[in-house]
Amino acid sequence: MGLEDRLRAGLSDLAEGAGWTDMEDRVARASRRMAIRRRVAMSVAAAALVVAAVPVVLMSRSSPNPPDHLGDPASPTETATPAPSTSSGRPSSTPSSASASASNDRETTGCPVSAATLLATLPNAHLGTDFGHPTRLSEVTCYKRYATALPVPPVGSVRILFGYTLPERTWIALNAGPAGMCDRYVLDEAISSRLPGC
Known about the structure:
Elements: H1 3-62, H2 94-109, H3 115-119, E1 136-143, E2 146-152, E3 159-165, E4 170-177, H4 189-192
């Protein structure tokens, strides 16, 4: 083997080794670029999470009462008992305290409620049951933050269940059906027994 052949073989070996090294460098650079992109994406996601969480935290701090959930049974309300009057000439203050108690009871239970108020909740309701396109509601029964009503025109024996949300003090449509529509929503049997269709 001559000098020229050895030189050619050496250059060939050098070219082959350089090819693998070059490929390894390219893979390493691509891997570093991907790692940087991942870090940037994670940083952006973390920043977005912080930006989304700040208003929620601020709103929860400004709310004086913790949210109340519909599934919890309503707490019994205390009613004021009139104090016996010692003087027959003075008017009693019982009517004003009774009306204040009734007003407070309405704010916490939502009852009584009008059919028009409940009907206004239906356009955006997704109840999973066909309750038609009612133009009004009939046979509204309201008890402790829950109400049931029949749609007019009727769709079989379907009734609609509504719930009163606190602290928002708004009515929402919860479910509809011919029977058993309260099972997942009204957990207190003392309440569900007073609502037709439950």
